[in-house]
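Sequence only, no structure available. Ideas?
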Amino acid sequence: MTTAKETTVAKLKRQIADTEAKLEALREKLAKTTTPKAEKPAATFELEPLWKAALPISRTRSSKHQCRKEWNKIPKAQRPDIEVIVNALKAWNRSPEWKKDGNAYAPGLHRFISRRQWEDLPETTEAPSRHRAAPQPVQEPSGPGITDRDEVARLLSIEPKRMNS
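Reply:
I predicted one. Tokens follow.
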């Protein structure tokens, strides 16, 4: 029979073997997480032309990450050419709706993308201005004009006023 001492030694050897196996598994796991993977090239922001065409307030209200996230929600088959979107954004930038109160109503660029506002262009009519239009310069007659007071009065069918001289 085996003695108590031999049983304890055998038990400790099994614990050591189990612990070494666990240690080896942890080392492998650590090696996998710390091994540098082949790095992907930095993704370029494919919406950069759109970002540059946006009003500063629209860029402030968004981030490139938000824009990319909304853009990726659109199925690739439904995405228009970037030029179409840039032209639509420029039209919206000029619209009275967005220009009102110093562009206070211009949405963040990510909202422009999520709402697909390039599909609904703004109306091209300008809102009436609160200010009077600048006076247009009077055009001078190009040919020999009528300079005689009597001739002007006759054309207008009124009696010329005679000045006492």
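The mean pLDDT is 81.
Hope that gets you unstuck.
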